[in-house]
Amino acid sequence: MAGPRPGLRRDTQETRDRLLAAVGELLAESGPTFGLPELARRGGVATATAYRHFESIHDAHREFLLQLTGRLTDRLQSVPPTWTPRRRFDAACERWAEQAADWGPAAVHIRSWRGFLERVHLGDEPTGALYAALEPIVRDLIEHGELPDQDVEYAVLVWITMFDERVIVDLRESKGWPLQRLARVLGRSVLSALGGTAT
Amino acid sequence: MAGPRPGLRRDTQETRDRLLAAVGELLAESGPTFGLPELARRGGVATATAYRHFESIHDAHREFLLQLTGRLTDRLQSVPPTWTPRRRFDAACERWAEQAADWGPAAVHIRSWRGFLERVHLGDEPTGALYAALEPIVRDLIEHGELPDQDVEYAVLVWITMFDERVIVDLRESKGWPLQRLARVLGRSVLSALGGTAT
């Protein structure tokens, strides 16, 4: 999902990736205050080229969010399903924290105002894919008795809420927690919130 | 804090309140797509009057957020401190859910991108006042042995993260949960996350 777009020539794909990286840099530096001309300058391409890739700056924001949601989903899905449920959960939390620390300072400026479950129910594909990466881990924890039987949708919502990029950036910057500690503490809070005994 | 502004004449204050109510209506209906002229029309005043109250539409958004944060803080602070810590916590969760259900559909469009702790540390007054309303309840729960001793700042962050207006609106609309259930379930998740035995 986070990979190259089908049908794009390789140099076009490279330009697109460079522009999306520039979206992340500019957002992290100064929020959503720039337009396509400034984005083009940062990406080192002509303004007309930026307009060929994105209809508007909002389109560029959306594509940036799509790319990072895809990346996060890929990282979560690559946790080996043969691991024990608890090890899968811990690894997912760690990868999530790493990802969110990377693009969090950019993404906090343009996050969706819609609820996570609402987006899943509306059939929003990247949100659905993220849900589909988390849900089997929660089910596995329940099946192995590490969590009591419960509303899995609510459980995934609690997980995603606690790993909100704004929370991760806040804990890193306000409390100076290193990523590993942050992933461990947040992960334990999630497991406890869901009725598990987080040790 | 959520009361009238000192130094404003009564009719000026009424106009201001009407305009802030109109900000909430327009945001809930269609997000931050309107300007001061449209806000003035909705509030039933001349455009020039709206400009006398707000420098820009962003200023109107900010004042709206200030007003609702103040209201929330007032409601939380009015929970009697003589109640048992657990009763105080439950009442605070219920009032919070009521408040967030009211202005949540508007506020999700304009929430701060800054982390909660960052805003507290920066000396942002309304965020500090909200923190000051929650912190004694957490300390009380710890002193009475309902929660283990812990980092109170992190505990308040968990509480505020789970009661995010986007989560409350999502649970109401996507799962159809009534407010009381929602407050109870989220409150239990918070207590469990913090190591309490939520019964």
UniProtKB/TrEMBL annotation, chains A, B:
What are the entry keywords?
A: DNA-binding, Transcription, Transcription regulation
Which residues does UniProt assign to DNA binding?
35-54
Q: Which residues form the HTH tetR-type domain?
A: 13-72
A Gene Ontology molecular-function term? transcription cis-regulatory region binding
Signal sequence residues: none
Q: Which domain of life is it from?
A: Bacteria
Q: What is this protein called in UniProt?
A: Transcriptional regulator, TetR family
- The organism is Frankia torreyi
